[in-house]
Amino acid sequence: MQLSDAQRLDWLRLIRSENVGPRTFRSLVNRYGGAGPALAALPDLARQGGRQIRIASREDCVRELEAIIKFGARLLCLGEDDYPKSLRAIDAPPPVLCVLGNVALFERPAIAIVGSRNASAAGLAFTERMAGELGVQDFVIISGLARGIDARAHRASLSRGTIAVLAGGLDRIYPAEHEELARAIAEQGVLVSEMPLGWEARGRDFPRRNRLVSGLALGTLVIEAARRSGSLITARFAAEQGREVFAVPGSPLDPRAEGTNDLLRDGATLCTQASDIVDTLAPILRDGLPQPGTLFETSEDSAEPLWDELDLIPFQAPLTEPGHEMDEDPGPPYVAAPPRMMARSDQDWRAVIIALLGPSPVSLDDLARMSEAPPAQLRSVILDLELEGAIERHGGNLVSLLMRSGQSAR
Length: 410
Hints:
The chain is of the alpha/beta class. Helix content is 40%, strand content 12%. The strands form 2 sheets. The protein has a 9-stranded mixed sheet with strand order 1-2-6-5-4-3-7-8-9, with helices on both faces. Strands 10-12-11 form a 3-stranded antiparallel sheet.
């Protein structure tokens, strides 16, 4: 299917109208036979419901389409040939997607890799390994461009194929420090958003993004996730969409592993190597995607008011300022690894290195690479921590935080 220019404009106007989300869009189009008739019926329908709604103007949507083209991106509509087939199979898929990059990647099997933004060096190293090995198996890696595990998964899969799903518009990268990474993904992979250009992501937009991360993939791998984290929301969406959920076990002493260990207890597939994923997904690659779960209602005869979208979030999301992503709890504030060329105090480097350590042993080589600390600075911090009795050395040049009775990693 390929929409005409007039139909495409009607689709964009309808989805950009006030309180029209994917479920309402589908209901309106099915009821009135198309987006154009649905737009014409909206004013009377709203008055019957005792309210008024703002309908997106033709002029505004023409400008949006022109801006998308100028930006170098494309608007894909549900059902069109290039629209991702895996996303089409979920309940309430977004009627329109704004994409920038190589849309041919949508044709390849994909795995979502998500996890802690306050990731340990061991978690980051495992992410690199999994993304690389899955890439060799021709899997595209999908993630949400967040700090920590997400960013590492994207970087490790740039050359073989990666897709980043954004909570805001394609021109509003969050966090801002990943703008360079986003440009690299646009050149070698794909950036995806259901939001218009210029949209600054709000807290409630990140769970919306997460449903697309899981929906684009055959399965979701969670590497380090605290309880009450966005990564667990992605895993929940994946399960309810009928997709596989994989989890990496972690130390019970590390809060960053509490969420993944809970997933394993609740029935997620244990993953310690790429073959765990490849073998599990072999029947799906052979037989096709399973039917989605029941997170969203699919009945067209539902008596639920059309305006009751609930933003597609299965819980009451916190109200936050634009650009603020719901953070994990518990856990320390994110400490960004500073670039080598910027001067940092000894305490800054110490904070960066400690944030990467946990009860799971990690090699000093990986720790140096993940922290980007100068070798002399890394040796100094490790020596100080060793003299303080804060770390434990293992064979193979590995170190870990030394856990005392009653103490957690954070």
